[in-house]
Amino acid sequence: MALITSSEDTLAHLSFPDAPHMVTLPPGPESRRLLERQSQRESNARTYPRGLPIAPAEARGATLKDVDGNLYIDCLAGAGSLNAGHNNPVILGEVQRFLASEHVLTSLDLPTGPKDRFVERLFEILPAPLRERGRIQFCGPTGSDAIDAAIKLVKLATGRVELLAFQGGYHGMGQGPMALMGNTRPKRGLGPLLPGVHFQPYGHCGSCALGLTIDRCDLACATMVGSVLEDPFSGVAEPAAIVLEAIQGEAGTIVPPDGWLEKIAGYAHRNGVPLICDEVQTGLGRTGRWFAFEHAGIVPDVVVLSKSIGGLGFPLSVIVYDESLDVWGPGAHAGTFRGNQIAMVAGAAAIEFIRDLDLVEHAATLGQRLLADLHGALDSSPLVGQVQGRGLMIGIEMVMTQVAQAMRAACLQRGLIIELGGRGDRTLRLLPPLVLTDEQAQRVGSILVEALTEIENEMVPA
Fold this sequence. Notes:
This protein has helices at residues 5-12, 29-41, 48-51, 77-80, 89-99, 113-125, 128-133, 143-158, 175-179, 214-217, 220-230, 260-270, 341-356, 359-378, 401-413, 438-459, and strands at 56-60, 63-66, 71-74, 134-138, 162-166, 197-200, 239-244, 275-278, 302-305, 318-322, 384-390, 393-398, 416-417, 419-421, 427-430. It is an alpha/beta fold. Helix 6 runs parallel beside helix 13 (341-356).
């Protein structure tokens, strides 16, 4: 898997030098102690410790050590928020110098040098129409807040209130974003959420909501969106926006078919409906482009960003949108922590680091090879449904939840951290930092194959 030889040595030095190894099978004694203490005081809503029973202690690049000394390749990486890697020394150095400067650390929405630098770096990687006509709004710490801001923006700009969202979509856990969520389980018992949201089928060819196949569907699910927008008898009033992920993440890494997103964008443009693209998880090079919508050659009216734009996991979220939508007044969307200077310093440094090491192309090349290797090794297994993804955003759907859970545990015991997603939590999700090396990628593939072989021997009759 030969890649960018000029940067491979650099990437190798970012992680712990050893291969993944287990001092004790997780959970080790110190992890177990901390997990037990956590369970006594933290909310029942906690999630990751239930399937990943470890207590992290140190991390570098694409690797992580727990308190018991176990070393892992981290393919969760802050749920995809650490594209430049854990404790990236270049970014960390920038943050340390900034902290030593006695610069203001939070500035509300007052202008600062660090903010100006962050905005410049971000706009440099935007497609030309947004670079030339874009406006940016700094939101609260999370992607959920940025989604709320985007909804507010388009409603004020259009004077309309209805929204089109998609089955399988995920846009955060606030009550506004949850109204756009395809997964109904977190909504149970909450009563009415944001009104006026209408769901459409996503381009999910592995499980078509219309029962069609890609060779004979002519992108019928996208045509349905056109019908909603253009048929005065569709039952849906003219919407304020269409909200989507160019690649669905929490739904199980669902990559829509070629032409689907272009068709949706075309309907939106022809009917004067703003298109909001949620790039919280797919942005900053994750899919082998700076933004996942670029694979389709489109430019949304609004782009929602969070996670990796904070560089080292510092909380930050923004929306970037076409200036024609900039009709809201002062204070229309505010937030105390929108002036997080540390996150802006780290975010600007992360963009520069990813750009200077050509990590977007690295993610595209490495991800393509890893995906091909996984297809070759896993497709024939009776326990595997489908393998898909783009760049370093890969999903491996298993046939049963029980199999996916067993795979997660078996991988953890071999030094690989992965998490589950998709319908029934049946999909193994890989979201490693973009600094993942060729050697680490090979090890990820090997661990997955070893784990699957073990589980097949246990579950599949001879």
